[in-house]
Design a protein that fits this description.
globular; alpha+beta; 5 strands; five-stranded mixed β-sheet; 152 residues
Length: 152
């Protein structure tokens, strides 16, 4: 899809990012996009931007944020000290889904992982989102592991 710009997020993007995160059946139950934003979003944004192993990114079209994702660059000892890119919090505006925006955004994100020396890109997706699973598989991701979480 043409006309998209991918870049690191800045503080002025925060409300749009939270709105994207809240704009689905799961996000609507765990996010609060009302303004002014809850201060925890600002604190998290500051922590992310201070950490050199984090990249919060947005997709922009005609000056409007239409997508977001976060990459965590993870150093590890396994696989001979290989770095991994962990992609999380992926959203593309509903109006652009199925039109190539997500595919282009992932190509950019994977390029960011390659440029940081990552030998593997990984992600998790909620089991209640079969369309997301199909999308990631179409990009070449394999469901090779079972992910587990413990809410604290």
């Amino acid at each position: 899809m043409s006309g998209l710009l991918f870049r690191p997020a800045n503080e002025s993007d925060l409300a749009a990012i939270v709105a994207l995160l809240a704009d689905d059946s799961l996000g609507s139950t765990r996010e609060n996009a009302s303004l002014p934003l809850d201060q925890r979003y600002g604190a998290a944004f500051e922590a992310i931007t201070r950490d050199p192993n984090q990249l919060l990114a947005v997709a922009e079209r005609d000056g409007t944020v239409v997508g977001c994702l976060q990459i965590t660059f993870i150093p590890g000892l396994s696989r001979m000290g290989m770095w991994r890119g962990q992609i999380e919090s992926v959203r593309v505006a509903a109006s652009l889904r199925g039109r190539g925006a997500g595919k282009a955004f992932f190509a950019w994100a994977i390029g960011q992982c390659r440029s940081r020396g990552c030998g593997l890109v990984q992600l998790t997706t909620d089991k209640t989102r079969p369309e997301a699973l199909a999308f990631y598989e179409s990009l070449g991701f394999k469901a090779s592991h079972e992910g587990m979480k413990l809410a604290l």
